[in-house]
Amino acid sequence: MDNIIEIKNLSIQYKTDERTVEAVNNLNLTLARGESLGLVGETGAGKTTTALGIMGLIPDPPGLVTAGEIIFEGQDLLKLSKHKLRGIRGNKISMIFQDPMTSLNPVVTVGDQIAESIRIHERLSRREASKKAMDMLELVGIPKERYSEYPHQFSGGMKQRVVIAIALSCNPELLLADEPTTALDVTIQAQVLELIIKLKKERNTSMLLITHDLGVVVEVCDKVAIMYAGEIVEYGSLEQIYDHTCHPYTKGLFGSIPDIEAAVDRLNPIPGLMPDPADLPQGCSFEPRCKLACARCKKENPSMVEVEAGHLVKCFNFAKGEERNV
Amino acid sequence: MWQRKKKAPKKGFWNDAWYRLKKNKGAMLSLVVLLGLIICAIFADYIAPYPYDLQDYNHTFEFPSKKHLLGTDNFGRDILSRIIYGSRISLIVGFSSIIVAIIFGGLLGAISGYYGNKVDNAIMRAMDVLMAIPGMLLAISLAAALKPGLMNLVIAIAIADVPGYARVVRASVLTIKEQEYIEAAECIGAPDSRIILQHIIPNCLAPIIVQATLGMAGAILSASALSFLGLGIQPPTPEWGSMLSSARQYIRTYWHMTTFPGIAIMITIFALNVLGDGLRDALDPRLKN
Known about the structure:
The structure holds two protein chains of two kinds.
Chain A: E1 3-15, E2 20-32, E3 36-41, H1 47-55, E4 63-72, E5 75-76, H2 82-88, E6 93-96, H3 110-121, H4 126-139, H5 156-168, E7 174-178, H6 186-203, E8 206-211, H7 214-220, E9 223-228, E10 231-237, H8 238-243, H9 248-255, H10 295-299, E11 305-308, E12 311-313
Parallel strand pairs in A: 3-8, 3-9, 6-7, 7-8
Antiparallel strand pairs in A: 1-2, 1-4, 4-5, 9-10, 10-12, 11-12
Helix pairs in contact in A: 3-4, 3-5, 4-5, 5-6
Chain B: H1 13-22, H2 25-42, H3 44-47, H4 79-115, H5 117-132, H6 135-146, H7 150-176, H8 180-187, H9 192-200, H10 205-228, H11 240-247, H12 255-283
């Protein structure tokens, strides 16, 4: 299977006068064609920054890609000209934003907003683009009669459908979904997820799903990457991560989900907070909160270790030869 | 019981705005008044009872009568006819100077707001230079440098107004460009020109329109002031402001000479302001009901 996108050693920083925030550190990620990858992590782990980095939309200043490459179809996106990047954005890679309430232009009709993307990337007349936009509306389950209505006349779930329609209008090969269901209530979440899964299957689109909801990942993704303080700490297939959890952080995440059957008074969170990204610890970034931390974790940053085929963990506890009983 | 409301015709942004404007009675009344004025201006030759420069020395300073509905002035000219002809100048100057000012000021403001940094600095500092000179003085010096005349009057007033629009537009662009839908537009690969023209400008139309209606009133007054100073419209061409200023000296005895041109200015400006308010509501789909 060929890889649609390969991110190698990506580092992104936000520099201000007082401090440098290391949002993404040495991130490696690959995604095979047609697969979907769930990028899971706490708020502030650098998930959205990674997605914006792929799109080339890191606000500069203060953001800066300091190292790494993002290989998409054999080209390094970071080295492409602005003009070429524009031809890829929305056409081959498109993005679904977190909040549908703010990601639609309030003074342009929803139909025109869908047609816009089509008109930019495909040489179609206004009428053909409108027709295609209407088809897209129908595809996401909105009657095409509502083409010329404004975003404020739609409910949140419908707006998110419109956003999905915009993202899929040019048949992208890679879809970046940045917490597409966070702003929606649970019943609508389910509908939107189903829609995304259905369309993804029909069009064989690869997807990078950013979320902090492990439940959503199970439904949608084939692969999972757990992100912590700008780094991937565990990467593997759905079964590997959910059934053979290795990294203490991932274990903590699962441990903090309340059991629906047991009566629990208190939730079971991971103690401590994420380290300040402007002042990351010298060793393993999870060390201050880790139950299994040892002296070595304080000094050295562990590298990724393959515990089984395709299952990578960034922890000394799983380094070869010194595997401990966890 | 359950009756569906009559649906608005949905044919796009401008038709929608028109539909909403129609529901605003004040705005429609103002529109009728302004259309009336425009018709007066275009067909002045047919509507006016006398030529604007016909002097009748047997009937100077006459109060309103059947023969001269709004009286006559110090040369025995019919005031009603002069007001009707005067609407030409006022409307031409008002509309065209504001349109010129909006196009230049708006574009400069949008570009400087959108790109920021050096571009922003260069443009806004140039605007600051213009703003440092009082608008009226700037218009006077420009009008003096360009020789009197209608075209130059328009240019002088427009240039004096450009910085105001640039600032208003820049301020709204600065807030709008941080919105997520602008990022979303970048995400679908829209070029800068498209983002500015399609996504940013329509979102800051409301403040521009309000500024424009107020500005148009100001432009009409500036035109009058320049005419009064002899830098604008040359007599005997009638112009409301110059009619006012020449009648100034007779205000104690012949009130009609100042009152009627004044009322003409007032009605026009009032109509412009009410219409501007209505347009602001109509052009903002978020206020749609």
